[in-house]
Amino acid sequence: MTQRTMDAATQPAETLYSPRFMAAVANAGGGAWMRELSLTLALAASAGVSLDEATLIYSDVRDLMALQRRLRMQSRR
């Protein structure tokens, strides 16, 4: 995963990820994957990391949930 330093309070996801990625996410529709992706992006922002776009696109719901657990552990430190 690619990590970049950011200020999660002032930098929205739209500026961290490419327009192509954000368009793919917007066109993904609803459902469990979209819900888990949204939560994963929010947790990453609160932890101060930017995640690799390709990894996110090819992740299934279980992968995203596992990533959320790691992000929660990191934000507790």
Secondary structure layout:
Blueprint: H1 13-16, H2 19-26, H3 32-47, H4 53-57, H5 61-76
Helix pairs in contact: 3-5
Task: Give your account of this protein's structure.
This protein is an all-alpha fold. It has a domain at 30-76. The protein is globular, with a radius of gyration of 12 Å. It is built from five helices and no strands.
What is the beta-strand fraction?
under 5%
Shape verdict: globular
Q: Please give the count of helices.
A: 5
Task: Evaluate the radius of gyration.
Answer: 12 Å
From the helix content, strand content and strand pairing, which structural class follows? mainly alpha
Strand tally is: 0
Distance between the termini: 19 Å
Helix content: 55-70%
Give the mean pLDDT. Answer: 80
Could you name the ranges where pLDDT drops below 50 across 5 or more consecutive residues? 1-6
Order of helices and strands: HHHHH
Main beta-sheet annotation: none
Feature tags:
mainly alpha; disordered N terminus
Condensed summary:
The chain is mostly helical and 77 residues long. The protein has helices at 13-16, 19-26, 32-47, 53-57, 61-76. It contains five helices and no strands.
